[in-house]
Structures are given as C-alpha cells and as structure tokens.
C-alpha cells in the first residue's frame, strides 16, 4: 500500500511542478496552453544530456534551461509581439512534439544510469514540490513581488500606473513557468519513468493545465489536486490492485482523463463561478499594450 | 528602438492583401523546408540528394503519387475539422479523438450487422458503405459536438476537453482491437478485423470516392464562409464574440454548430484512413500514428488562413512531404521521425510568419523637435 502511495506521489510531482509553473504564469496574466510541449522538450533534453554525460545534475540543468528558453519564446510572442497566446502555446506544443520525436528517437529506451535514490520509496522530488508550493504561496500572497505579479494579471493598466513594469513581471513569470515545466519533464524522464519513448507524456501536460484551473490559482489547492490526480493516475496504470479482473486495463487508462471533464464542467457552472471562481486572473490571456 | 534619427517600431498591419497572405504562407513553408536541411545532415546522401529522394518518391513515383493522394484526402478532412471551428475563434485539437471515433463507428456497422465475412452480407454493399460513412461522420460530430456544447453553454475550455477526449478515445480503440477486444482481428493480435472486400470504399483508378467528398467540401466551405449569412455569422463571432453577441448572433448555437461540423469532417477522415486506403482496410495496431498525422491538419488550416480551397495544395504538399520524408528516412538511414520534425518546423515558421503577418517593422523619422539638442547656452534676456 505504501509502495503504491509513494509511487502515486511520484506521479503527483510531475503534475505539480508543471502546474505550479503555469500557475505563476497565469497569475501574471499569461496563458501557456503549450505546457505539454515545454515538458516534452525539457524531458527529452534532460534525458539525452544525462545519458550522454552520465550526470544527473547536467541533465536537470539541460531540462530547466530548455524549459526556460521555450517559456521566454512564448513570452516574446505573447508579451512583446502581443500575439494570440493560444496560437503561440499550441505552436510550441506541436513544435516540441515534432522535434523531440526526431531528436530523441536515437535514444529510445532506458536511461541506463543508477536510479536516483528514494526515501523509503518516496521520490525526493515530491518534497521539493511541497517546498516549492510553500515558497510560491509565500511569494504570491506575502511579498510585494507577489502583489506586483497578481496585479499584472488582474489589471495591468493599474499596475503600470502604480509603477510596476508589467512587461518585466510577465517575462519573469513566463521564464519561471518554463523552468518549472522543464523541471517537470526532467523529473519524468530522469526519475519517475527513465525510459525515453516518443511523445512519452501523452497528456500529462494537459492534465496539469486543467489542474491549474481546478486549483483556483491557489498553490495549496493545487498540491491537493496534483496528489489526487497522481493517485488516480497510478491506479489507472495498475487497476488490478483495487479491482482485479474488472474491465480491460485499457478502459482504466481513460479514467483520469474522463474524470477531468466533469470537474471542468462543475467549476465552469454559474453556481461555482459566483461562489468560488473569483480567483481567476481578470486579464488572463489578454495581451497588454502600454499607454 | 531608436537608431540615430530614425525609430524602429512594430506596428499592427492595418489591412492585409491576398497576395501578401499567399506570400507569407509560401515563405513559411519554404523556410521550414530550408530548416529541415539540418535533419538531413546525418544522411548518407548529399543535401540535394535527400530532397530529391523526398520529392521524387512523393510526386513522381507512380506508387508514391497514389499514396500522396490518399494521404492528402485524409489531411484535407483533418484540415476542415480544425478550420471550421477556427473561423469561429475556437480550437478543435480533438482531431485524433474524432478520427478514432469515426473509425470505430465505421467498423461498428459491419460488426453489428454481422457482416464481417463477405458471404454473410445482410444488405447491399453500397448501402452498407453509405451507412459506414454516415456512422463515421455522426460519431465524429457527436464527439466534437460534446466539446462544442460544453464550450457554448458553460465556457468550458475546448482545448482541454478535446485533448482529454483524444486520450480517452486512444485507449478505447486499444480496448476494442487488442487483447480480445470486440473488434480484434481473427488472426493477428493487436489489430482490428479486416473489412470484407465488398465493403471497402470503391476505387476509381486507385483513388477512393472520398477524394470527391474532400474536394467538394473545400468549395462548399469557402462558399459557406464567403457568401452565406451563416458563414458571415461564424466569421463575425470568430473575430469579435462580444460585438457579434450585440449583433444578435447566438454564441451557443454557433459554437455547437462549428464543432458538430468539424467533428463530422474528422469522422470522415477516420472513415477514409481505415476503410478506403488499399492495404489498410482495418484499424491497424499503429493507429496512434494516424492520430499524430491529424495534427498536420492544424498546421495546414493555419497556414491557409482559414481558406478551405487554399488548404488543398497545402495538404497535398504536406501529404507528399510526410510520405517522402518517411521514404527518405529508410533510403538514407536517417533517424526515425523526419516527418514529425517537419511538422514541428512548419509550426515554428508559421508562428514567425504569423508575427510578420500581423505586424510590420516601421522606420520612422523622429520629428526634429524631439531630437533638438538641449540648449547649451542660456537664452538671451
């Protein structure tokens, strides 16, 4: 039982890192629907680097760097060029999907390094994730930088008038978001499941994106949501632990995705929106033109 | 940015001429092809030889041409599936899921009517084929319509919903065709049952009738958007939903409609891919590849800037390129996934061209009063 829980929390960590980055992104008003692409590229870069150099730290460094660069690219398009954020995000996703399939194909297979040690089966990255949640919460709700981030996402014109550089804040946040997405991908390919395969994520990034909406942009709720989805994900991979022999294993694989839809529906109902949904950043997805 | 007496700024382009639109599309595609040179660096052949291998297989080899046509039909249906909702400002990235739904529905017709063997056909083959086409379109439309309805009624993000449906349908197909699933073939495990010969799509010189559907749809779609009130409403809603609502356009009905229509096209793509292409005629074990291929539909709709007729040559080109790239990969010992890499490169150059499409770099002479040097001497008096 503990093994299953520990493994589930390992899965939660992947969701958590990516979703936390996206949360920071969205708090500043930038929507990045290409999260999955950033994770794919970061994960692939980390895997290739770690395998060729034999060094985990270098692998993580590569993953974080690629993630940050792609985040910056999204920032350039959506902040400087004030383009459609969905076009840019989708573009980054398909770009990453296509290029990583080609770049990684020669590395298909297991990583072949000694596994990163775990704490009685629990991934150390989960603890990093919890710490990051606390740091993010403190940053967003208890510091002046956090206030600047939130105001850039709620009312950028007012933020600018009070002396905040919306462009700088948003660039900072997309880069941090990208780095965390890269970390998420790297954690997947170096720790959670160190076997490279084309399009290895198959929807993890999009579930992470949905988790941000579920979290009402609060890091602690995000932690709870990510943990829940990690458990659900792990159970869908090995349903025989709970309900042996009931339904095909393929049907179980649909469960995490199938549950996401009704949750999205519930949080979109007028009842939920008026009661709980006020946390959504007002200027989310809208480019900001100064002056 | 200021350089001397001139200022360099990015300005939105006021109106874009048709020539310029075509030009950006051509430049985006050419640039992607140029960038793909890097992919061929590890090839056995020279750069020119690699390109020659791609193009000569796709467009000059009799077998290759036929394969290109088959794939172009598939890509065209996928293109429309993305294009129709896009004109209303909505993103249907559920193409793979809708393709799979169409394929499952098409094969459900002979399965339910126990017509898996040619001897036991209950109805005339023509009627059965018609039923299969209708079932595929209806299944795709239902899946698309579900996302459209959620978007229309509750503003649920359509990207997330369609993406979740992609994963759900992917695993449902696996359930249906693998490990003793209902549609599993009699001989080979991990594949769907093979369609009896009378139920395969009729061919004319090796080209199935779906080609006519695909080309006809291109003309009809462009007429719909250019000449009809409904098309105008869709475009108005896509360009400015708030203004459209003030103009009396119902967002609910429109969002649902474009997703129903888009889903139906993706369902037809599923019908075409698995029942109309000689040598397939079943849901193969690598069906996921067809789902990935559907994303070429997104990029061709984007590059065609919403014109269905404009998407036809683009889809043919992409069909040829993706097939030729696969061929060259084998012939020149390239790593797997040249066709995927091309997809990514096209997306990259599209985004770049999109920026140039929306903005222009403007050189402006800075007005001389701004530049006047600060007075170094106190004015007299």
Number of domains of chain A: 1
Whole-Å distance between the termini of chain A?
Answer: 58 Å
Read across the widest sheet of chain B, the strand sequence of neighbours is 1-2-5
Q: How large is the radius of gyration of chain B? A: 25 Å
The rough form of chain A would be described as: globular
The proportion of residues in beta strands of chain B is: 5-15%
Number of strands of chain B: 5
The major sheet of chain B is characterized as:
3 strands, antiparallel
The total beta strand count of chain A reads: 2
Note the overall shape of chain B: globular
- What oligomeric state is this? heterodimer
Molecular structure report:
The complex is a heterodimer of chains A (291) and B (381). Chain A has 291 residues and is mainly α. Chain A has one domain: Orthogonal Bundle (ABC transporter involved in vitamin B12 uptake, BtuC), CATH 1.10.3470.10. Chain A has 13 helices and 2 strands. A two-stranded antiparallel sheet of chain A has the order 1-2. The termini of chain A are far apart. The mean pLDDT of chain A is 92. Chain B has 381 residues and is mostly helical. Chain B has 2 domains: 81 residues, no CATH class; 279 residues, ABC transporter involved in vitamin B12 uptake, BtuC. Chain B has a 3-stranded antiparallel sheet. Chain B has a two-stranded antiparallel ribbon with strand order 3-4. In chain B, helix 1 packs antiparallel against helix 14, helix 3 packs parallel to helix 7 and helix 12 runs parallel beside helix 14. Chain B is globular and about 90 Å long.
């Amino acid at each position: 039982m503990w093994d299953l829980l520990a493994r589930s929390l390992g899965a939660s960590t992947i969701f958590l890192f990516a979703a936390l980055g996206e949360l920071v992104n969205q708090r500043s008003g930038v929507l990045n629907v290409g999260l999955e692409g950033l994770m794919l590229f970061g994960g692939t870069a980390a895997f290739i680097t770690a395998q060729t150099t034999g060094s985990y730290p270098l692998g993580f460094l590569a993953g974080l760097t690629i993630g940050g660069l792609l985040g910056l690219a999204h920032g350039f398009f959506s902040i400087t060029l004030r383009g459609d954020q969905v076009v840019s995000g989708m573009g980054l996703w398909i770009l990453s999907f296509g290029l990583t399939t080609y770049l990684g194909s020669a590395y298909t297979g297991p990583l072949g390094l000694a596994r990163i040690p775990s704490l009685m089966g629990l991934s150390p990255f989960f603890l990093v994730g919890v710490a990051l949640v606390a740091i993010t919460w403190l940053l967003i709700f208890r510091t002046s930088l956090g206030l600047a981030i939130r105001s850039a996402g709620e009312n950028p014109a007012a933020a600018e008038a009070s002396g905040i550089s919306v462009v700088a804040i948003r660039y900072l946040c997309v880069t941090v978001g990208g780095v965390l997405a890269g970390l998420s991908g790297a954690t997947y390919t170096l720790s959670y499941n160190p076997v490279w395969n084309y399009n290895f994520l198959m929807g993890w990034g999009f579930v992470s994106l949905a988790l941000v909406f579920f979290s009402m942009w609060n890091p602690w709720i995000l932690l709870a949501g990510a943990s829940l989805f990690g458990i659900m994900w792990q159970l869908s991979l090995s349903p025989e632990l709970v309900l042996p022999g009931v339904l095909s294993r393929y049907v179980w694989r649909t469960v995490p995705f199938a549950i996401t839809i009704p949750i999205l529906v519930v949080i979109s109902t007028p009842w939920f929106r008026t009661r709980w949904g006020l946390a959504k950043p007002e200027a989310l997805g809208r480019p900001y033109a100064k002056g | 940015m200021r350089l001397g007496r001139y200022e360099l700024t990015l300005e939105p382009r006021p109106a874009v001429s048709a020539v310029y639109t075509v030009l950006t599309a051509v430049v985006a595609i050419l640039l992607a092809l140029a960038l793909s040179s890097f992919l061929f660096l590890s090839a056995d052949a020279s750069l020119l030889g690699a390109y020659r291998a791609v193009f000569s297989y796709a467009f000059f080899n009799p077998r290759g041409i036929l394969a290109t046509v088959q794939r172009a039909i598939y890509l065209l249906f996928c293109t429309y599936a993305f294009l129709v909702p896009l004109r209303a400002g909505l993103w249907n990235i559920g193409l793979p899921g809708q393709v799979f739904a169409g394929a499952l529905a098409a094969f459900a017709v002979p399965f339910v009517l126990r017509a898996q063997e040619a001897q036991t056909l209950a109805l005339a083959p023509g009627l059965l084929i018609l039923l299969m086409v209708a079932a595929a379109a209806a299944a795709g439309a239902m899946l698309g319509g579900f996302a459209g309805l959620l978007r229309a009624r509750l503003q649920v993000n359509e990207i997330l919903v369609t993406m979740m449906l992609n994963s759900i349908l992917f695993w449902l197909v696996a359930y249906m065709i693998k490990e003793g699933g209902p549609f599993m073939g009699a001989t080979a495990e991990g594949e769907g049952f093979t369609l009896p010969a009378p139920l395969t799509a009729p061919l004319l010189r090796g080209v199935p009738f779906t080609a006519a559907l695909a080309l006809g749809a291109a003309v009809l779609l462009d007429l719909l958007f250019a000449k009809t009130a409904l098309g105008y409403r869709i475009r108005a809603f896509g360009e400015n939903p708030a203004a459209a609502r003030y103009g009396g356009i119902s967002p609910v009905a429109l969002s649902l409609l474009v997703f129903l229509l888009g889903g139906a096209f993706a369902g037809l793509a599923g019908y075409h891919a698995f029942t109309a292409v000689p040598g397939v005629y079943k849901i193969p074990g690598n069906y996921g590849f067809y789902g990935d291929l559907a994303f070429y539909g997104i990029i061709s709709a984007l590059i065609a800037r919403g014109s269905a007729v404009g998407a036809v040559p683009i889809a043919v080109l992409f069909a040829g390129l993706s097939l030729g790239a696969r061929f060259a990969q084998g012939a020149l010992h390239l790593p797997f996934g040249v066709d995927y890499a091309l997809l990514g490169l096209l997306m990259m150059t599209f985004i770049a061209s999109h920026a140039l499409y929306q903005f222009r770099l403007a050189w402006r002479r800075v007005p001389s009063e701004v530049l006047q040097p600060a007075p170094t001497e106190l004015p007299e008096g």
